[in-house]
Amino acid sequence: MTQTFLISEVKLRTFSDINNNVDSELIKNAIREAQDITLQSTLGTLLYDKILDLVSSGTIGDSANSNYKTLLDSYIQDTLLYAAYWYSLDAIYLRPRNNGLIQPNGGENSLEVDISYYNMKRRSVQNKLEYYNDRLTNYLIEEQALFPELNQSNKLYEQNPDYSTKYGSPFVFNRGIRNAQEFLKRGYPVYDSKYPQYPQNFTSNNITLPK
Hints:
The longest helix is centred in the middle third of the chain and has 28 residues, at 66-93. The strands form two sheets. Strands 1-2-3 form a three-stranded antiparallel β-sheet. It is mostly helical. Strand 2 and strand 3 form a beta hairpin. It folds into two domains: 9-151, no CATH class; 168-206, no CATH class. It has helices at residues 9-14, 24-43, 45-57, 66-93, 115-142, 164-167, 178-185; strands at residues 95-97, 100-104, 110-112, 172-173, 191-192. The N and C termini lie far apart (53 Å).
């Protein structure tokens, strides 16, 4: 797990309703999980590591790294804010004990967990996380030429950017398959399975049908 944080504890508390009494270690661990799990899945390991290295070395602000600075400030931090908040909810609202899950209520006191309230809160934060992560994903797809690390992964232990949930149509064809044309006519999105990292949506104008 990384020790370099791309969003500060102060910012997370400021832009969320996390109480100031919540233990700092819980907040830091939530940020770390959000980075290693959610953010790394979106950026891929190589771009993720590149951002961490630039921040750790203090060179993220150099003019040569302006593209990465924009990515961090305008897209990554918004995603991380709600990803870290989402990961923190378990630690804030739930504690495992011998008699099951309890909700801390200050000091030695605790309450039984209200699952309906917890699920409502979690879903609200998740909706915001998905919005900002989609925004980050769209930016990476449109501006992939600015970030060569997106296409350089060749190791099994290095994650590739995963955009399949957002862009993966249930109908996946090669460009020459006649069925792709029919689905496009009916308004279904179709992408070329040859490009799993950057799903390409095709229109009927650029699909060549087999003879």
